[in-house]
Amino acid sequence: MGNQVQVTDQLHDYMVAHGMPLDEIATELVAETQGLGRASVMLTTPDQAALLTTLTRLISARRAVEIGTFTGFSALAISRGLPDDGRLICLDVDDEWTSIGRKYWERAGVADKIDLRIGDAHQSVTELDGEFDLAFVDADKDWYIQYFEAVLPLLRPNGLMLFDNTLAGGRVVGVHDEDPVDRKEFNAHIAKDARVDVVMLGIGDGLTLVRKK
Ligand SMILES: C[S@@+](CC[C@H](N)C(=O)[O-])C[C@H]1O[C@@H](n2cnc3c(N)ncnc32)[C@H](O)[C@@H]1O
After folding, report:
1. Are 159 and 134 in contact (CB under 8 A)?
2. Ligand 1: which of 30, 70, 122, 126 to mutate, most ligand atoms within 8 Å of CB?
3. Which residues form the signal peptide (predicted)?
4. What is the pLDDT of residue 181?
5. Which atom of ligand 1 is nearest to the CA of 77?
6. Tens digit of each residue's pLDDT, the chain (213 residues)
7. 73, 99, 140: which to mutate for ligand 1, most atoms within 8 A of CB?
8. Is the CB of 70 under 6 A from ligand 1?
9. For the chain, domain boundaries
10. CA 7, 209, 92 angle in degrees (round to 5)?
């Protein structure tokens, strides 16, 4: 069996520098988000953003949903992978953070593809209808199982769901003061689900790819 490389900060910088670069608009979105202070840790990493765009293109997604939009960085990445007539429904409870994203979506020419729905996603996820090709879940971690169960029936066969922060800073293994019970339960829940294939990637804080069979 092969070895898993330890991704140090230096190696991660190298990986980002040798992958799809952020353009000026995405760079400015990240900079404005970093100006928010501590909340900016919620941002998806640049290599995750590149992966989101690439996967969206690879599976020829036309209809996508994002749960947890924050300042719109991952939504920008997904929408850029969609065709001109593609649609991304974004669910988030916070009007202030998402209003930052709207400015950059306009500048990037993707605003017409994005349908932002402000409100508690516990409710709005149950109001989704139609078929989806791709879903990105990055909101409240203790609701991941419910998001998975709500979205899976709406996903087309071979459709893709992605869940962020599934390694919880590495705390899903070992003993820690802040035990990420929610992530442990979610990871165990999907691992034994025969309806899906699951791949956990050590990118960012852990990104799980879930393919519907
Ligand atoms: C980690 S951030 C999302 C980061 C974003 N995907 C990005 O890459 O920049 C989590 C977001 O989920 C939203 N959120 C948390 N709980 C929610 C809920 N119950 N309903 C809707 N949005 C929620 C927060 O408002 C926040 O914007």
Report:
1. yes
2. 70
3. none
4. 96
5. 8
6. 889 999 999 999 999 999 999 999 999 999 999 999 999 999 999 999 999 999 999 999 999 999 999 999 999 999 999 999 999 999 999 999 999 999 999 999 999 999 999 999 999 999 999 999 999 999 999 999 999 999 999 999 999 999 999 999 999 999 999 999 999 999 999 999 999 999 999 999 999 999 999
7. 140
8. yes
9. 9-212
10. 100
- Indicate whether residue 68 lines ligand 1 (CB < 6 A): yes
Helix (H) or strand (E) holding 103: helix 95-108
74 lines ligand 1 (CB under 6 A): yes
Residue 165 near ligand 1, beta carbon < 6 Å = no
The first and second tokens of residue 134, run together, are 């791709």
pTM greater than the 0.90 cutoff: yes
Find out whether the beta carbon of 206 lies less than 6 Å from any atom of ligand 1: no
What is the DSSP secondary-structure string of 127-192?
A: G--S-EEEEEE-S-GGGHHHHHHHHGGGEEEEEEEEEE-TTGGGTTSS--SS--HHHHHHHHHHHT
Structure tokens at 192: 């034994």
Q: Tell me the fold of 9-212.
A: Rossmann fold (3.40.50)
Residue 17: the pLDDT is: 95
* CB of 97 closer than 6 angstroms to any ligand 1 atom: yes
